Amino acid sequence: MNDTLATFVRVDLVPLFAAGAAALSCALVGNFLVLRRESMLGDAISHAVLPGIVAAFLVADTRAGWPMFVGAAAAGIIAVLLVELVRRLGRVESGAAMGVVFPVMFAAGVVLMERAAARHVDLDASCVLYGQLETLTWDLTPDMLRAPLSSEALGRVPIEFWMLLGSLALVSAVVVLGFKELRVASFDPQLATSLGFSSRLISHALAVLVAVVTVASFKAVGSILVVAMLVCPAATARLITDRLEVQLWLSVVVSIVTAGGAYALGAFGAPAVGLPGSVNIAGSMALFAGALLAVAAVASPTHGVLARHARRRALATRVSEEDLVGTLYRAEELGTPVLAMDTLAQLMGGTDRATGAVRRAVAAGIAAREARGVTLTDAGREFGAGIIRTHRLWETYLVERAGLRADHVHDPAEVLEHARTEAGDRIDPPSTGPLDPHGHPIPDGSP
Amino acid sequence: MTLPAPNPAWADLLDALTLQRGYTATVVTLGTTALGIAGGIVGTFALLRKRALMADTLAHASLPGVAGAFMIATALGASGKSLAVLLPGAAISGVLGVLLVHMLTRTGRIRPDAAMAVVLSVTFGLGVVLLSVIQKSSSGQQAGLSTFIYGQTAAMSRTDVLVIACAAAVAAVVIGLILKELTYASFDRSHARVSGIPVGGIDLTLMALVVLVTVVALQAVGLVLAVAILVIPPVTARLWTNRLRRMLALSALFGALGGYTGAVASAVFERLPAGSVIVLASGGLLAISLIAAPNRGVVGAAWRSARLRHGMARDHALRALYELADRSGGPWVSIHELAEHRGASPRSTRWITRVLSLTGYVQRNAGRARLTPRGEADAKRITRNHRLWEQYLLTFADVAPTHVDVSADHAEHALGTDIVAHLERALADRGALPDRLPDHTELEGAGA
Amino acid sequence: MNPPTPKPFDAHPEHDPSSPVSIHALTVAYHRKPVLWDVDLDIHAGRLVAVVGPNGAGKSTLIRACLGLIPSATGNVRFWGEPYREQRRRIGYVPQRDEVDWDFPVSALDVAAMGRYAQIGWFRRVSRAHKDAARACLNRVGMLDYADRQIAQLSGGQQQRVFLARALAQEADLYFMDEPLAGVDAATERAIVEILAKLRDDGKTVVCVHHDLQTIERYFDDVIMLNMRVVATGNVADVFTPDNLRKTYGGRLTTLDRAGHALGTQGG
Q1: Among the three residues A169, A200, A228, which one is the final residue of a domain in this structure?
Q2: How many domains does chain A have?
Q3: Residue A241 within any structural domain of the chain
Q4: Are the C-beta atoms of residues B318 and B298 closer than 8 Å to each other?
Q5: What distance, in Å, lies between the first and last C-alpha atoms of chain C?
Q6: Do C231 and B396 touch (CB under 8 A)?
Q7: Do B164 and B51 have their domain in common?
Q8: CB contact under 8 A, C29 and B316
Q9: Which of A284, A418, B194, C214 is the most buried (most CB within 10 A)?
C-alpha cells in the first residue's frame, strides 16, 4: 500500500464516511421536518440537547454510548413539551416559543459544561458548535493497514463513527418502516389520530429521532451546522419533485453529494488554493449544501425561478397571441376584417402588448399586415374559430351549468378559453343550439 | 436595627447586588441591564409582529460579517479586532441574511421556517469556514472573534456599556415615537395600510431596531443566545398582561432583571459564563411566570379547570338526584341509578356523592343517596337556573353565544342572582318562561 | 323518532347498542368559554344526518369532540354502546378541506390509500391490494383519471372528492364529515350527494356539518340543529321548521329567511 493511500485511510477515510453518515441520517429525518414546517424545531432541538448530553456525561462519566443518547433524547422531548407549554400558555406562535426554550436549555448546557470543565472533564464548547470531524482519524499501525478489516483494526475506529452508523441504521429503519405513519401524520394529523396513529406520539418520535441524529452528528458537524444537514437536502429535493418517495431518495443523493463534495473541497481544495491545511469541513458542508439548494432554487425544472419565469413568459405570449386572433376574429364577424393598430392596441389593453402579438402572429403566418392595419390569414381564421368556439362554449357552460348570469360570464370565459386543451373540448354542446348566451354563433369545432 | 454579620459569600453577593464589587463588575452589570431593557422593548414588537426567530437568523448570519470585516481590516493594515469595524460587518451580513430569507420564501416552495433554518445554518457555516481560514492564515489572531459566538461579557469595557446604553436609549425613544403606528401595524397590517400608515417603513424601522439590539447583544451573550434577549422578556410579560403598554413596561423590567441578576451571579460565582447566566436568569423568571401568572399560569389554569369540572360534576349530580327523586316519588336514589342517569362511571359517582355528603348536601346509606334539605335547596336552584338558561339560549339564540360572554363560571353553574332575575324578566317579557320550573317562593324560603 | 320540539329536560338516553352514536351530557370549553353545552343526542343507524347552526355554534367542535380530537369537560360519547377506542375502525372522518397542507407531496392515490392505513396497522406497508382498493374508491368518486396528480394540481371540488374517496377506502360504518360540500362546484356537489345517498342505502350512517339551509331537505334524512346546545334533533320533515330555525339562528336568520321565502314563492 502506498503512502498516499495509507494517509488517506488513516486521516480521511473515517471522517469522510462519518460526514456521509451524518448527512444521510440528518437528511432522512429532515424531510419530515421540512414538510411539517418544523424546520426551526430542528434548530431548537439541536441546541436543547446540550444539557441532556452534558448531564448524562457528568452522571455516567463516559463520552460515548447509551447515556448520551438517552440524555439527548430526554432533553429533546423536554424541549418539545416545553415549546408546546409556552406556546399554549403564552399564546404565542411556536417560533417564539422555540426562541424562548432553546436558548435557555442551551445556556443551561453551557453552564453545566463549565462545571464539567472544572472537574477536568474533556468536553469543549467549540466541538459542540462546529464539530471536529478532522479528529476522527483511524489510528492504524502499518501492520493493521494490510488487514484493515481485522477486529484489531476495526477496534481502532473512533467510537463516534459507530455511533453515527447506529443512528443511521435507526433512522433508516424508522423511515422505511414508519413511512406510512410519518406521511399521514405530517399531511393530516387529525386524520392520523382518528385512524389510530396518534399524531402526538409520532411528532414526539420525530423529536427523539432529531435528538439522536443531532447527538450522533455532534462530532461530525456540530449543533448549528447540523441544522443545515437537516434542512438543506430536503428543501433542495422539495424544489425538484412533488412526490414524497422521490423527494426522500433525492435528499439522500443530495446529502451524499454534499458530504463527499464538501469533504473534497474542505480537505483537499483548500491546500490547492494556497491555504495552509484544510478549512473547517463542517462549515464547508453547510456551505456546499446551501449552494446546492441555491442551484435548485434557481434552476429546478419544476419550481426554480428560471423555469417559472420562462413558463410565465410563455403563457403571457400565448395569451396575448390568442387575444389578438380572437379580437380580429370578432371584428371580422362584425364586418371589419382589418383593424388599425391604434384600435387593436385599445382593444388589447396596451400598445406594447398589441405590437408584440402582431409581430409574433405575422411571423407565425396567422395574421398579415395591410396598409390600413392587421387582418387574419386563412390559418389565423381557423385558429380564431377554435378560440372563439372555446370561449363561447365556456360562456354557455357557465350560464347553463354553473348558474352565472349572462352578463357576468365574459370575463371568466376569457380566462378559461386559454385552458381549452384541458377541459374545453369536453364541454357538452349547449342545449340552446349553436348560439352562446349573448346570441353569437359558436363556430364548429375542427378536429 | 442590627444585621447579623454576613458570611463572606453573602458579603460578596451584597456587594455585587449594590454594584460595589469593583469597576469591571459594575460596568458589566450596568451594561447587561441596559441590554435587557433594550431587548425587552424591541422584542415586544418583534414578538407581536411574529418575527421573533428572525433575530436568531440575524444573529447567526452576522458571523460571516464579523469574520469578513476582520479579514478586510487586517488586509488594509488596520486592527481587525476593533468593534468599530466588527459591529458594522455583523450588521451588514445579518441584514443580508434576512434578505436572503425573504428571497428564498418567494420561491413559494420553501416555507419561512425552512428558509430561516437554511440561512441561519449556511451563513453560520460560511462564518465558521472564514474563521478557520483566518486561523490558518498568518495573522492567527482569531481568538477575539470566537467570543462573538458565546459572548464575553467579562471583557465589556466602559465604551461598550456606553454603546449599549445608547442603543437602549435609541430603541426606547424610537419605539416611544412610533408606538401608535407600530401597534396598529402589528395588529392589523392591511387595515393600517389603508389608513395611511406607512407599514413598510414601520417594518423597516422595527427591523433596524432588531438589528441594533442583536448586534450589541452579540458581544455580551454571543450569537447563539442573542435571540433570548429579544424573545424571553416579552413572552414572560405576555403571561402577566393583555395590555400592550403594560407588556412593554413589564418586558423591559424582566429584561433588566435578567441582565442584572445574570451579571451579578457571574460576578459572584466563578466559572459561570455571564451570557448563559443572563439567559438562565430570564428563563427562571419565565418559569416562575409560567407557573404562577394568575391568568395563564399552569397552576391557575389547572385550578380553574379542576374547579370547573368539579363544579359541573357536583351540579350535575345534585340536579340528577333532584330529577330522579322527583320522578320516582321517593327521596332515596341508588348510586347505580344515579350513575346511569348522569352517564358517568359508578366510581366517579360514588366519589362525587361522598364529597357532597361531606359538605352536607347529601345523605348516604347502603349504596343509596338522598338530598338533605340544604342539598335540595341547592339542587332546586341549580335545576331552576339550568332550565332558565336553557330557555334563554333557545329564546335569545341570536345574542346568546356571541354577545353574552358566558364564561364557564358565570353560566348555569353559578348564575348570579342578578343574572337569574334578568333571565326571568327577559323570558317573562316574551312569555317564554319554561314550564316545570322549580317554585320560586319555595326556593327563596329554602335558601334563606 | 324524536319529538319535533326540544324536550331536553329528561333527555338522558340509555346507551343503545344499536345506535351508532349516543352523546350524553357533552360539554366542551375552549379556555374559559364554553362552546358546547350539555349535549344529549342519539343518531340513528342508516341515516344521512346534517348538523346545522350559525357560525360558532360548535358544529365542528361536536364532531371533533366525538372523535376525541379535543378534550371534553364533561360527558361521554358512545359508539354502538362502546367508547370510541373500541369502535375506531368502524368510524371514518373527513376533516375540513382547509385544514391540510395541499402543497404536500402526495398524489390523489396516496391520499385515498391513507383511508386504508387503519386496516393496515402500524409499520406495515401499503400492499398492492390496498392500492387497488384505493383506486376503486377514486373510481367511485370519478377521480381515477387523476390518481397520479399531486393534490395541489386538483381543483377544490376534486380535492374534496379525493377526501371522500379516502373516507370510502376506510370502509367505515359511520362517517363524520366536516362541511363536505363547502366550496365545491355544482357538479361535484351532485356527485358527492349521490355517493352519500349510496352510503346510506348500504346501511351506513353519515353525519355532515352542513351550512346550506336551502338543500337540507333535499339531501338529508335527519337534522341536528345546534347552537351551543341542541335546539332540535330528528327527522328533517318534523324538525326543520321555521320555528326551530329561528331558535337556532335567532335574529340572524331573518334576512336569509326572507330571501329564502322570496325564492320559494318565485320558484313555484
Answers
A1: A228
A2: 2
A3: no
A4: no
A5: 31
A6: no
A7: yes
A8: no
A9: A284
How do beta strands C174-178 and C91-94 pair?
parallel
- Relative to beta strand C205-209, strand C222-227 is unpaired
Q: Are both B255 and B401 inside the same structural domain?
A: no
Contact by Cβ (8 Å): A370, A338? yes
Task: Using the 3D structure, point to which of B371, B398, B417 is the last residue of a domain.
Answer: B371
Tell the residue number behind the cell numbers 370547573, with chain if given: B308
Is there a contact between B120 and A279 if contact means CB atoms under 8 Å apart?
Answer: no
Among partner residues C75, C231, C246, which is closest to B343 by beta-carbon distance? Answer: C75
Q: What's the structural domain count of chain B?
A: 3
Domain membership of residue A258 (yes or no) is no
Q: Which of A137-141, A182-186, B351-355 has the highest mean pLDDT?
A: A182-186
Lowest-confidence segment of A49-58, A240-249, B189-198 by average pLDDT: B189-198
Contact with chain B for residue A230, Cβ under 8 A: yes
**Maximum average pLDDT range among A12-21, A57-66, A122-131, A332-341:** A12-21
For CA atoms A218, A223, A229, A230, the dihedral sign is: positive
Residues B273 and B306 occupy one common structural domain: no
What is the ipTM for the molecules in this complex? 0.81
State how far residue B312 is from chain C, nearest Cα, in angstroms. 8
Q: Tell me: do A207 and A346 sit in the same domain.
A: no
Domain that holds residue B426: 384-447
Does the pLDDT value for residue B6 go beyond 60? no
Distance, CA of B186 to CA of B240 (rounded, Å): 20
Is A70 found in the same domain as A186?
yes
B60 and B141 both lie in a single domain: yes
Give the model confidence (pLDDT) of B382-396 as tens digits: 887 777 766 666 665
Does residue B194 share a domain with residue B97?
yes
Q: Which of A9-18, A114-123, A225-234, C69-78 has the highest mean pLDDT?
A: A225-234
Identify whether residues A194 and A48 lie together within a single domain.
yes
pLDDT in tens, A390-434: 877 777 776 665 555 666 666 666 666 665 444 445 555 555 556
pLDDT of residue C111: 93
- In the B/C pair of chains, how many CB contacts fall below 8 A? 75
Going by pLDDT thresholds of 50, 70 and 90, the confidence category of residue B173 is very high
Q: Which residues of chain C fall below pLDDT 50?
A: 1-13, 253-268
Domain end call among B316, B339, B371: B371
Q: Which residues pair with C207 in a beta bridge?
A: C49, C176
Considering only CB atoms, which chain B residues are within 8 Å of A267? none
Provide, as residue numbers in chain B, all residues whose Cβ is less than 8 Å from the Cβ of C71: none
Residue B141: exposed, middle, or buried by beta-carbon count in 10 A (0-12, 13-18, 19+)?
A: middle
- Contact criterion met (CB < 8 Å) for C122 and A238: no
Chain A closest CA to B396's CA: distance in Å? Answer: 32
Sign of CA dihedral C129, C135, C137, C140: negative
Q: What is the mean pLDDT of residues B227-251?
A: 92
Same domain, B340 and B258: no
Residue A434, domain member (yes or no)? no
Q: What is the CATH number of the domain that holds B362?
A: 1.10.10.10
Report which of C92, C94, C64, C60 is spatially closest to residue C77, judged by C-alpha positions.
C64
Does one domain contain both B431 and B336? no
Q: Give the number of other Cβ atoms within 10 Å of residue B12's Cβ.
A: 16
Cross-chain Cβ contact A195/C125 below 8 Å: no
Please name the chains neighbouring B, where neighbouring means 3+ C-beta pairs under 8 angstroms: A, C
Residue A277 pLDDT class (50, 70, 90 cuts): low
The total of other beta-carbon atoms located within 10 Å of residue B252's CB is 26
Task: For residue A100, give the chain B residue with the closest CA.
Answer: B232
**Res. B138 pLDDT band, cuts 50 70 90:** low
What is the least distance, in Å, from the CA of C266 to any CA of chain B?
28
Q: Does residue A218 sit in the same domain as residue A318?
A: no
Contact A244 C106 (CB under 8 A): yes
* Same domain, residue pair B314 and B352: yes
